[in-house]
DNA sequence: TATTGTTATACTCTATAACTATA
DNA sequence: TATAGTTATAGAGTATAACAATA
């Protein structure tokens, strides 16, 4: 294996650039990064508590409150007390929330395709496969 | 291309895990992440000003001062006023600084090998090549 | 006056602690 | 008493502004 920068140095540089490239795409849909992450998480399956949502996206429960306020104010999510336990808030996407999420995701995928186009064609699949593998293992390295 | 998480989501997860995995390795050598980055940058070539160093590692010039204080205090770097322009500080690694840098880098490489071992053998080279390519392009993504 | 390095200050992000309401 | 959500507070990390030394 020939000389190269440290892995973390390369992934940090790449990651910051990708996040920066996502920002204007998300802004077209009025979304911040956290708002987008919340829409993605709720899209998979509605959740019964905000704490569960925070947990699932690796955020503190206090950090997503303003995000939920914004999304609810725009009508992108529903957030209603659980009739069975009125301490909890049932969270789910509205149809409009689903539409915005899908549009934002399409925009991001288009940006990503332009990035991946810079790779040699034969490296793309292995790169994505390896990235998937390592990011899935990531919480518990080595 | 089949469904997958967003690129940025995967690189962020991976990057944080790698940085976290580096931390204890660097700590064995008494280094923080920034101190290690400074040692690497100075190892390539001595620099004439702290501003140039900060620029080269993408940090604010005010942020590296405490780092340089620490490295100088441990005798890992030399930091002397330029006789030709005493406003500037000539920065370079001491032999001990070079030794610590090399030892830390070896430790990090060993950790990275354990991480890369989780990949299919045939994906490793393409992954590293793609990561190099994209991180080199990163500052100016489309 | 302009530049290098430094210190002081402010801002952003995040986490912790304290509070309200339900149970 | 315990839990979900919220608000208030405090702590990192970082950037900006002000300052001292040198040119």
UniProtKB/TrEMBL annotation, chains A, B:
Residues covered by the HTH marR-type domain = 4-136
Matches recorded under Pfam families: MarR_2
Which SMART domains does the record match to this protein?
A: HTH_MARR
Matching entries from InterPro entries are given as: HTH_MarR-typ, MarR/SlyA-like, WH-like_DNA-bd_sf, WH_DNA-bd_sf
Specify the domain of life of the species encoding this protein.
Bacteria
**Where is the signal peptide, in residue numbers?**
none
Name this protein carries in UniProt: Transcriptional regulator, MarR family protein
Species source reads Microbispora corallina
């Amino acid at each position: 294996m020939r000389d190269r920068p440290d892995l973390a140095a390369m992934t940090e540089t790449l990651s910051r650039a990708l996040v920066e490239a996502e920002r204007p795409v998300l802004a077209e849909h009025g979304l911040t990064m956290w708002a987008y992450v919340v829409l993605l998480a709720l899209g998979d399956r509605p959740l019964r508590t905000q704490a569960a949502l925070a947990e699932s996206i690796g955020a503190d429960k206090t950090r997503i409150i303003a995000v939920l306020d914004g999304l609810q104010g725009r009508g992108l999510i529903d957030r209603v007390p659980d009739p069975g336990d009125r301490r909890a808030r049932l969270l789910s996407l509205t149809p409009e929330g689903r539409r915005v999420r899908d549009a934002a995701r399409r925009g991001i995928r288009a940006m990503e395709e332009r990035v991946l186009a810079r790779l040699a064609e034969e490296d793309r699949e292995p790169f994505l496969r390896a990235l998937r593998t390592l990011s899935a293992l990531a919480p518990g390295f080595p």
